[in-house]
Amino acid sequence: MQASLLSPSRSARVAEVLVALGAVRITTAQPFIYTSGWASPVYVDTRLLMSDVALRREVMDIAAEGLIPLVARQGINAIVGAESSGIAVAAWLAERLALPLLYLRKRPMGWGNSARLEGRLPDQACLLHVDDVTTDGRSKVAAAQSLRGTGARTADSLVLVDYAIYPQSRELFAEHNLTLHALTSWAHLHAALLASGKLDAEEAGTLAAFSADPVQWSIEHGGVGA
């Protein structure tokens, strides 16, 4: 399932921060093609958070505040960042929550179920997987399956941005007993972009068409469909 970690106002604030940083890039020409295969007029570069101390601190404080009840409720005892996009976020959160940090490689380095993990699993490990952005959720499910292969319980994944507009993602998470938590979504980012007053007419029209039917937009621009 997909779950909002924060209140709507907090999620809106995270979206405002990303827009203010210039992290939400828009194209009206050559589309972005995500690793998942979807074509989109939007690319969110959350790595820009790394370079702004004040805004980074604000967003991570908001995230930690939202995570504290989840950590207590689920018994989460370690944070695992995705290589390389989730490592920095995982590290900032692990420090705030006083939890061990590990990271999950994209490819194995060695042998056995733990070949993709760097760091030491705690006893009776219950993990929170952390990454930057998700589209249809398939990579987050694959990561959870890999972590479960080590014997660790992995029921929750956290991203900064969940587009939350792509079909079948809810069913996918439910099928694999994984809950996706997000700080913000495309709906919040779109609203923040409109409120910024920085969109020209062509950009506004492109984003409206994408938001109305992201699957059809992807198909028409060379990406995958549902």
From TrEMBL:
Native species: Candidatus Dactylopiibacterium carminicum
Cited SUPFAM superfamilies: PRTase-like
Cofactor: Mg(2+)
Catalysed reactions, as listed in the record: orotidine 5'-phosphate + diphosphate = orotate + 5-phospho-alpha-D-ribose 1-diphosphate
Gene (name only): pyrE
One MF annotation (Gene Ontology) recorded for this entry: orotate phosphoribosyltransferase activity
Keywords tagged on the record: Glycosyltransferase, Magnesium, Pyrimidine biosynthesis, Transferase
Protein name in the entry: Orotate phosphoribosyltransferase
Positions annotated to bind orotate: T135
InterPro entries per the UniProt record, alphabetical: OPRT, PRTase-like, PRTase_dom
Associated pathway: Pyrimidine metabolism; UMP biosynthesis via de novo pathway; UMP from orotate: step 1/2
